[in-house]
Automatic annotation (TrEMBL):
The keyword Transmembrane helix applies. Residues 175-237 have a biased composition (Acidic residues). This is Uncharacterized protein. Residues 1-120, 175-278 are annotated as: Disordered. The chain crosses the membrane at residues 288-305. It comes from Elysia crispata. Keywords: Membrane, Transmembrane, Transmembrane helix. Residues 238-270 have a biased composition (Basic and acidic residues).
Amino acid sequence: MEGDREDTNDGYWEDTDDGYWEDTDDGYWEDTDEGDREDTDDGYWEDTDDGYWEDTDDGYWEDTDDGYWEDTDDGYWEETNDGYWEETDDGYWEDTDDGYWEETNDGYWEDTDDGYWEETNDGYWEDTNDGYWEETNDGYWEDTDDGYWEETNDGYWEETNDGYCEDTNDGYWEDTNDGYWEETDDGYWEETDDGYWEDTNDGYWEETDDGYWEDTNDGYWEETDDGYWEETDDGDREDTNGGDREDMDDGVREDTNGGDREDMDDGVREDIDDGEMNRNSARKERKWVLCFVLFCFFFGMRTTYTGKPMEKCHSLGIIEHHGVAFPPRNPFIVKESMKKAGLKEGKCCYDRRQPGHKNKRSYIPLES
């Protein structure tokens, strides 16, 4: 089909009889019979007879007879007779007679007579007479007379008279009069008058007046007034009012009101209130009964061995201490002692004077 590329015998694609690119004998593509680019004998593309780019004898492209770029004798490109860039004797490009960039005697580029960047005596670029950046005596760039960034005496950049960042005396950046970040006395950045993060006295960032994380007195982050994690007295994070995980006394996170996993006394996480990962209820009940028995045992042992008067001893074998009745270590001894004294209740104390086995010891009623 005419106009479509086809394959030559060497595997390159060419076009048939309509002026599109085809393949030459060396595998480069050229065009036939209508003046578009074709291939020269050295594999560079040139143009035939219509002023497009062609190849010079040294392999660089130049233009023929229409003022486009061409190649000089040293392989650098220059321009002929229309004010475009050309090449100087030292290989740097400059401009001829139209105010575009040209090259100075030291190889730096400057501009002639139109206010564009040019080069100063020390090789830094500055601007002439239009308020663009120029170079100061110490080699830093500043601006002249228009409020853009300029350079301070210590070499840091600051801004003049428009509220953008400027430099403080210690070289940190702060802001003037618009509420953006500025620098505190300890060199940390804080924010003024809009509730964003600022710096506390210990150098940690905290937040003002909106409930985001802030810093506690020990440098740990905690949260204010919305139930996110905060820091406990032992440095572990816990939750307030939110029902998420908090920290127990053993340092393991558990859940409060949320029904997710919590920590048991053995350090294993379990779940409450939603049936997931739960220990069976009988085991929980046995656990609480065991705790109560142990409490009574240790408390009863403490009271029965003090030798101090109890409040009341009942003939039923119960001791009432501070208004709370509980079974002593051996209620049968109490019952036997009260029975021998013929009393139903009364103050009594443990008789430590009687030697022998603990089961032979008795309580001595003091009064009815």
